[in-house]
Design goal:
Elements lengths: L2 E2 L1 E2 L4 E2 L23 E6 L6 E3 L5 E4 L37 E4 L4 E5 L11 E5 L7 E6 L12 E9 L12 E8 L5 E8 L10 E7 L10 E8 L7 E10 L12 H8 L5 E4 L3 H4 L22 E2 L5 E2 L5 H11 L2 E6 L3 E2 L9 E2 L5 H16 L5 H8 L10 E4 L9 H15 L4 E4 L19 E8 L1 H6 L7 H5 L5 E9 L22 H15 L5 E6 L3 E3 L10 E3 L7 E2 L1 H11 L4 E3 L1 E5 L5 E7 L6 E7 L5 E7 L8 E3 L19 E3 L8 E6 L7 H4 L9 H6 L85 E4 L3 E7 L2 E6 L2 E4 L5 E8 L3 E11 L5 E12 L2 H6 L4 H18 L3 H6 L1 H16 L4 E12 L2 H85 L1 H25 L12 H38 L2 H27 L6
Parallel strand pairs: 1-34, 4-35, 6-17, 6-27, 17-20, 20-23, 23-24, 24-25, 25-26, 26-27, 28-29
Antiparallel strand pairs: 2-3, 4-32, 5-31, 7-10, 8-9, 9-16, 10-15, 11-14, 11-16, 12-13, 12-15, 18-19, 21-22, 29-30, 31-33, 33-34, 35-38, 36-37, 39-42, 40-41, 40-43, 44-45, 45-46
Helix pairs in contact: 4-5, 4-6, 9-10, 14-16, 17-18, 17-19, 18-19, 19-20
Length: about 1150
């Protein structure tokens, strides 16, 4: 028989099982009992047994602490497709990670040359016209690149700038290389030729492999893309999706980082829960983890703003998670989006999909399962086959949502999802993310029998001791028959303290898992193993921590670009021991002497019944003797133990000494064997703070590729983290004071210093004990030590306490301190400080909820008040700024908030200064940075603006039409006026012409008459006779015409009397002569009339008219008389 026990920091490791139907022992008291020995008996013949939970120990992964991008996702290029930056809410894109090579080479972000609809931004590289030598760019990787004698796969997309591309140039291709960031060493390079006639219209995909002949001494390396500057002078190129992959886990393309995946494989996990976590939900519905955007070619994956303060590329997508499970031989536990998203403000409840819109997301979850499990005849199964995996995956566990106790809608969302998913896939175990936790609705979700609940616990060691019996009879107590539990996230978060975990200020928060954390987690794991009918699955969280950028501590595994920096925590080894030494059935352990606390135990037996695994934990400093008795002879025993003299010791870079080790066990005596469970040797917390501290000597720094002081202009990638968790959150400035860890010498390059940013993780409930607020971190400043002689920097005030009381404020310059008596209690900067005010909600006077953040500029004017007037002046003033801003905005409507932004800043500044005088801090100015209205309000504002613009456009259009009509009418009017004027002028001109013609004719006639008259006067009788003869001729001629044309014969009455007829004709002649005289009179009248007309008198005109009328009557009389001489006869 094999006896296994694991000692954790003075504690041995454990597992005991109580029969599922048997009555569980009462919970242990808070204080340990003083038993020097514990007598345990295991009855193999008659004791009650239960099947253990074969899937109990697994993994939970979400991309936090750069555990995905920059972590287990093996891509070595940072910001490979320029998808985003650490500004996840502002959406800023940048070129972080890139530097130009060559004098005058310019790198710019460009949106005019997208690679695809998903990857819209590219990097524009401009080579100056006078370039010579090597030009191009480099990428620093994720805080460095590990260079080993492996084969690396490099690729990128390139497109020349069409207007500037010189095809006649001799540039033939690019050079890919891996080179040192500290020296001129180039570890490997390869030429990558351009294809013939490279396109300037479409991107060209270039690929190459690089195999360094030897390993680089450290990970402070870069990936460079270069070409000949002379050949490319004056030209511009666009680049996108720049990629570099080392060998991956199981040689999977686009796969996992090998060392991290193998570390996980080492704990023999049974499942993987993915993709989150908060990172599943997104900061809004639109930014959720949308599985359809994480599949297919990388050029079609847009990425998304993650929930932990940085952009996710989604290179590690849905299919990659499934392949992870396949390659590791574990079950996928898929978490599907369930219609609830978080918010950057941290407010709860946040974003819930309306009931009428929920069906779309339910169908999306069904499609997601079909993509994994459908055969190639289904729509989504065919797409999976197209993506390279025709064989369906098997999914047995699906969680609906994540931490939905933050929402006020899960009670109606969960049943709808469950019903639809059960109908489509009835054989899957469905998991609820809320059951008995406190939530805004004050009601628990109904979980039907046969389903599961996901429980999360982030607690202190004492909490797990106090709740050792939490799972005993849980189903009956809480009214969930046949509902099992998945402990999806748990860890020891901080040391024991009154009130438990400090979720506000982070007091006692562990930077790295110490031994005491592994002890608490081991006790909780024993509680799970004791109840296999209740607890089926469990996983530690969070899984990974990148040394260079993290938002949460403590974590399971810590790493950097250098595999030598990989640190497996005490929690990791506890999980490994529990997973490895785990039987198929539980055994009932009878305690004949002693009870739980400070010793905790449990036992299981292997499936072949040949080995018994006994797990023992000692949670106190005193060693305990364990006497174990079986009802069968013991053939042999051995132990695997993890322990340390200091309960607060932890593993670190170069000092990972807390690991499970084999330990001899006294030879069994028949059916009995004894084992001593050691305790730790001291509990002096001040001393504990020094235990396990890694030595960051110059030799160690050189070993991991770090330098104590980087020369000016030298870039150092990555950093050794501070054990004091030197972090600063951008949005929620609070304080973390890890009491039991100290700060090591962290190398910080002079030109490449990088702040560690954190993002709050959501409150994790205590399962019916009340939910807790989020926890945030801030840099904990280390105070100067009393070295007797100190030099105080300029613009700095050091507050000295003597024997615990305020003594004086040290001014800049030399200061002398009394050793042991004087202590530098506070250090205050007298410089202006910019404090970022976190995003918060404020309600306007017209009930519109706004999200606002800002920047507050302050300065300490009284160091004494800033030290003693308030606990944390910076935090207090930031809180005051938030409340003041909410108060000011509450008095204004939305329109006035937007219009009076500057006045609002002034009012807030004045209000802060009024309240902060007692704190010794003055507010110089306050600036509201961003104002975000709710989406419906923004949409309404957009609609209003659109309507106003449409209205204005219609008004302008109608004004134009009206003006056009006026112009047309005015034109027509002017046209008609001009036309009438023309007609009038024409008529006037015509009349004038006629008058002139008449006048001329009259003058001509008068002249003619005058000439005739003159002739007559001169010719006297002969002229008169000639005239008379002419008239007679015309008379005869007229009668001849009448005879020809008429039907009657007109003849003179005296036709028989020739003499009489001639006499008549002569008579006519005489009359004509009289008429001629009358005409002469008329001519004279006309001449007289002209004279009269020119004189212009009315009397003269009347006289002329009278004379004309008389003349006309004379003419008529002549005609009458002439005609009277001719009568018609038959």
């Amino acid at each position: 028989m094999k006896f296994v026990n694991s000692l954790l920091v003075a504690a041995v490791t454990f597992t005991a099982e109580v029969a599922a139907q048997a009555k569980n022992p009462e919970g242990p008291p808070n204080l340990p009992k003083n038993y020097k020995s514990i007598d345990l008996k295991i009855n193999l013949k008659h004791g009650a047994r239960n099947k253990t939970s074969p899937m109990l120990h697994g993994l939970f992964f979400e991309d936090i602490n750069h555990s995905g991008d920059g972590g287990i996702y093996a891509e070595l290029i940072r910001n490979r497709a320029f998808q985003g930056s650490d500004d996840v809410t502002g959406g800023t894109k940048d070129l972080v990670g890139y530097r130009p090579i060559g004098e005058g080479v310019k790198l710019e972000l460009d949106i005019t040359q997208p690679l695809s609809d998903a990857l819209r931004y590219s990097m524009k590289v401009t080579v100056p016209a006078n370039a010579t030598g090597e030009v191009g760019f480099l990428n620093e990787g994720w805080w460095g690149i590990n260079v080993q004698p492996y084969t690396y796969n490099a690729s990128l997309y390139i497109k020349p700038h069409m207007p500037s591309f010189n095809r006649s140039s001799t540039i033939s291709g690019l050079t890919f290389s891996l080179r040192s960031n500290l020296t001129d060493d180039i570890w490997v390079s390869t030429e990558v030729p351009f294809p013939d006639n490279i396109s300037a219209f479409r991107y060209t995909h270039l690929q190459a492999t690089l195999t360094p002949p030897k390993a680089a001494p450290n990970s402070n390396n870069t990936f460079a893309v270069t070409w000949n500057g002379t050949e490319a002078a004056g030209q511009t190129f666009f680049f996108n999706l720049i990629s570099l992959f080392p060998p991956t886990y199981k040689n999977r393309q686009n796969g996992l980082r090998k060392d991290l995946a193998e570390a996980l494989e080492g704990i023999k996990p049974k499942f993987l829960r993915f993709p989150g976590g908060n990172n599943l939900e997104g900061l809004s519905v639109d930014t959720r983890w949308d599985w359809k955007k994480t599949i297919g070619p990388l050029v079609d994956r847009p990425g998304r703003p993650g929930n932990w303060g940085y952009w996710n590329t989604d290179g590690l997508g849905y299919l990659e998670y499934l392949l992870w499970c396949e390659d590791m031989g574990i079950e996928p536990l898929l978490t599907v989006y369930a219609g609830y998203s978080l918010d950057a403000s941290g407010m709860h409840p946040a974003h819930t999909v309306p009931p009428e819109e929920l069906d779309y997301f339910i169908q999306d979850a069904i499609d997601q399962l079909e993509y994994a499990m459908g055969d190639v005849t289904t729509k989504w199964g065919a797409l999976r086959a197209q993506h390279g995996h025709p064989e369906p995956f098997s999914i047995k566990y699906v969680e609906i949502g994540n931490e939905d106790w933050f929402s006020d809608s899960y009670y109606w969302r969960f049943p709808r999802f469950l019903e639809a998913l059960k109908k489509a896939y009835p054989d899957i175990m469905y998991i609820s993310s809320q059951a008995v936790e406190e939530n805004p609705t004050k009601q628990n979700v109904t979980i039907p029998p046969g389903n599961m609940w996901d429980l999360h616990h982030y607690q202190t060691p004492q909490f797990y001791k106090d709740n050792f019996n939490y799972f005993d009879n849980w189903q009956e107590i809480n009214g969930y028959p046949n509902v099992t539990i998945f402990v999806g996230e748990y860890s020891v978060l901080s040391r024991d303290r009154p009130g438990g975990v400090d979720w506000v200020n982070g007091e006692g928060r562990f930077a790295y898992p110490p031994m005491i954390a592994a002890i608490g987690e081991a006790i909780f794991a024993l509680a799970m193993e004791r109840n296999p009918h209740v607890v089926k699955l469990s996983s530690y969280a969070p899984l990974f921590q990148n040394w260079n950028a993290y938002q949460w501590t403590p974590n399971f595994i810590a790493f950097s670009a250098n595999p030598k920096d990989l640190v497996l925590s005490t929690s990791y080894y506890q999980q490994k021991m529990f997973s490895e030494y785990y039987g198929a059935e539980t055994l009932t352990v009878e305690n004949k002497n002693g009870d739980f606390n400070p010793l905790w135990w449990g036992a299981t037996i292997s499936e072949d019944q040949s080995r018994i695994f006994v797990k023992i934990v000692n949670s106190e400093k005193d060693k305990k003797t364990v006497k174990l008795e079986l009802d069968k002879p013991i053939k042999g025993a051995n132990a695997t133990v993890m322990r340390h003299d200091d309960e607060y010791a932890f593993n670190f870079i170069g000092n990972s000494t807390i690991v499970p080790k084999p330990q001899k066990v006294a030879k069994p005596k028949g059916k009995k064997v004894e084992f001593v469970a050691e305790g730790w040797k001291q509990k002096d917390w001040s001393r504990a703070a020094r235990m396990g501290q890694p030595k960051t000597s110059a030799a160690l720094k050189k070993k991991v590729g770090l330098s104590s002081a980087a020369p000016d202009g030298e870039r150092t990638l990555g950093r050794v983290p501070s054990l004091a968790l030197a972090t600063a959150t951008r949005r929620h400035p609070t304080t973390l004071l890890p009491l039991l860890v100290t700060t090591t010498t962290a190398y910080a390059p002079s030109s490449a210093s990088r702040l560690f940013h954190t993002t709050p993780r959501h409150a994790l409930p205590t399962s019916g004990l009340g939910s807790m607020p989020p926890t945030y971190f801030q840099k904990a400043p280390s105070l100067p030590m009393n070295t007797i002689i100190r030099f105080v920097p300029q613009q700095t005030a050091w507050i000295v306490e003597r024997m615990g009381k305020f003594n004086r404020i040290l001014q800049p310059g030399l200061a002398i301190l009394i050793p042991f008596i004087d202590r530098i209690a506070y250090v205050k900067s007298l410089k202006e400080v910019a404090i970022e005010i976190p995003s918060q909600s404020a309600i306007t006077a017209d009930n519109v909820t706004l999200e606002l953040d800002g920047v507050l500029y302050t300065r300490v004017f009284d160091a004494y008040k800033a030290s003693y007037g308030v606990e944390d002046a910076e935090y207090a003033i930031s809180q005051l700024a938030q409340t003041t801003m909410r108060s000011e905005i509450g008095q204004l409507t939305l329109d006035h908030v937007l219009k009076e932004r500057q006045a609002l800043n002034t009012n807030i500044t004045a209000a802060i200064n009024e309240a902060a005088q007692a704190w010794g801090v003055t507010c110089l100015r306050y600036e509201i940075r961003d104002i975000h209205a709710p989406k419906p309000v923004v949409e309404a504002m957009h609609r209003q603006v659109t309507a106003e613009r449409s209205k204005r456009a219609e008004i302008l259009e109608s004004e134009g039409q009206r003006q056009s009509a006026i112009n047309i009418a005015e034109g027509r009017k002017q046209s008609e006026i001009l036309a009438s004027e023309a007609v009038r002028a024409q008529k006037i001109n015509a009349a004038a012409g006629d008058a002139e013609a008449i006048l001329l004719r009259a003058r001509a006639t008068a002249a003619g008459i005058e000439a005739v008259a003159k002739a007559i006067a001169e010719g006297q009788e002969a002229a008169q006779n000639a005239i008379s003869l002419s008239v007679a001729e015309k008379y005869v001629d007229a009668f001849s015409k009448l005879a020809k044309e008429g039907t009657a014969v007109v003849v003179p009455g005296n036709v028989g009397d020739m003499a009489g007829m001639i006499a008549t004709a002569l008579s006519v002649y005489g009359k004509v002569g009289d008429a001629q005289g009358t005409r002469d009179a008329a001519r004279r009248i006309l001449e007289t009339g002209k004279v009269i007309e020119s004189s212009g008198t009315g009397e003269a005109q009347a006289e002329v008219v009278a004379e004309l009328e008389a003349a006309q009557e004379q003419v008529a009389e002549v005609k009458r008389r002439s005609g009277g001489q001719v009568t018609g006869r038959s």
